Every structure is written in structure tokens, then in C-alpha cells.
Amino acid sequence: MKRTLIHAMFGSVAVCCAVWAAYGWTRLQHVERVNAAVAAANMPGGDSRADSHADPREHAGLDDARQVQLARAMALSKAGAYEQAARLYNGLFHEGVPLDDVGRAALFDLGNLYLRQGSSDGTAHALRSLVMVGEAKARYRLVLRAAPDDWDARYNLERALWLAPETGAASDRPDVKEQHNIKLRDPQSQDLP
User: For bias kind Basic and acidic residues, which ranges apply (predicted)?
Assistant: First the structure.
């Protein structure tokens, strides 16, 4: 009786370990397929051409092509292809649809992209910088609506507000001279998370 109970417990532990190992193996295979799809999409002769709008699912046959698209957008952003990266980021979230992890990451990275563009222009292109920083603030606020505890988004929103403060009208009559003077603070640090 005692021996049968010990053998049954040992057998159940062995089955649980086998199930856990099989789960880990399938996750590993999935991650390797995603990594291979990202690497293939980012190859110089691959689908990362500026005029390519191929669906990442065609490349790897993955159910979660959104992760591949996010990784591809991040690679394009690092390479300096900001317009293509912004298009891919915008394709990962939709207004009115609750944000998942990939959508929040896309919004956050898109905000970072706009903030970098806005802060790199400096005072030479003040109006363009102001627009880009405003776009970044809008993206960070969308992230914070979906996840109020996202401290990276809070920090970056605060930084964007420091670069282009939002001030309310002090009086009913706007000052025409003040409306035409666009002021941006010069960013000293490049420490976006």
C-alpha cells in the first residue's frame, strides 16, 4: 500500500514535469520562429524595403504577426526610417479598441519616435518641433489612459511637457505677438527609456 502510494506520487510528479518540459519546448519553438521572422524581415534584401507593405504573416505563417511587426518597426526606427516605422506602429493599434501589450508598446515607441524627432530639430524648425512634441504627448496620454501605472510613459510625458509646456490663456484677449513666438526649450539629455 505504502509502496503503491509512493510510486503513484512519483508518477504524477514525473507526468507534471514532462508536461512542463513540453510546454517550455513549444514556447521555445515559437520564440525561435518569431526571431527568425524578425531577422528575415530585417535583412537588407528582405521585406524591410521602404516601399514594401508585405504582411509579416506571409513570411513566417505566425499567428502573432503583430509582434513581428512591432520588432520590424523598432528596427526601422533605429535605422532612421521614421516614416515607415510610424506607419507600422500606427497599424498596431486602433482607436476605440482596448489596447493590449503590443498596442501599448507601439504607442509608447511611437511617442518616443515623435519626441526624438521633435527634440532633435531644435530651434531651427521650431514649428515642426512643436508639432512633433505635441504628437508625442498625445501618444503618451493614450498609453496612460490604458495603463495609468506606466512610469516610463509618465516620465516621457513629463519630459515632453517640459520641452513644450501647455499654458492656459491668462486673459480673454490673446496677445498677437506672443502667439507668433514659438518657444521650445533646448533638450540637454537624450535619456528616453
Answer: 172-193
Q: Which three cell numbers stand for residue 109?
A: 515607441
By the 8 A CB rule, do 71 and 38 touch? yes
Q: In terms of C-beta distances under 8 Å and separation of at least 24 residues, what long-range contacts does 30-37 make, across chains too?
A: 33/60, 33/62, 34/60, 34/62, 34/64, 34/67, 34/68, 34/71, 36/60, 37/62, 37/65, 37/68
- Which residue ranges in the chain fall short of pLDDT 70? 41-64, 121-124, 168-193
User: Which letter, b or e, does each residue of 57-68 get, where b requires 16 or more Cβ atoms within 10 Å of its Cβ?
Assistant: eebbebebbbbb
Cell numbers describing residue 48: 524591410
pTM confidence score: 0.62
The three three-digit cell numbers of residue 3, written as one number? 509502496
